[in-house]
Amino acid sequence: MKEPSEVTRLLIAWQSGSTEAGERLMPLIYDELRRLAQHYLDDEREGHPLQATALVHEAYLKMVGLELAWQGRGHFFAMAARSMRRILIDHGRKRLAGKRGAGEMTVSLDHVDAALEISTDLLDLDLALRELSGFDPRRARILELRFFGGLTLKEVAEVLDTSSATVERELKLAKAWLNRKLVPQRSKL
After folding, report:
1. What predicted TM-score, i.e. pTM, was given to this entire model?
2. pLDDT band for position 121 (50/70/90)?
3. For 72, what's the count of Cα atoms within 13 Å in the CB-facing half-sphere?
4. Where are the alpha helices (DSSP H) in the chain?
């Protein structure tokens, strides 16, 4: 049986009410949370009102209030990714509502895998992931963990309690669906 990581032990202790565990946890996870936030913001328009530090803090505050049983490091970072995604989407909706659609928020999906080389509107991506989760929540979750969470195939497999081979197969199918959904069809001449 695999020994839980220091982050996992501190998450469990923090969830059980240990303020000391919470204080010890933050320095261990902060750099990775900040890297994740910067990764998202790199795909945003220039002059985005949120900075990586503010995105980390806002996501962390949202997660503190969650009544979740942390399953480990991967689960924590997956939830952090989901929180950051929602924050950015909420900011985008507010901005677009204020400007009546002026300026598009684009996000590159290139880093997911070379097979999915598209750039799309973040709100369209969110709608597509919601649609996918309506009929295939597992594949939507895999895309979310890989794209927004930046988790490796192995980490996704751990979070979902399945094999890396299953995750890889499901990811290929999910990316194919997303590619068909988001890439405009070429007109037939």
Report:
1. 0.63
2. low
3. 12
4. 6-15, 19-42, 52-64, 73-99, 122-135, 137-143, 153-160, 164-182
How many residues does this entry show for the chain?
A: 189
What's the pLDDT tens digit per position in 148-178?
777 788 888 888 889 999 999 999 999 888 8
The domain segmentation of the chain, as residue ranges, is 1-100, 104-189
How far apart, in whole angstroms, are the C-alpha atoms of residue 176 and residue 113? Answer: 11
Share of the chain above pLDDT 90, in %: 11
Token pair listed for 40:
């998202």
| Structural fold of domain 104-189 | Arc Repressor Mutant, subunit A (1.10.10)
CATH classification code of 1-100: 1.10.1740
The alpha carbon torsion through 23, 20, 67, 158 (nearest 10 deg) reads: 70
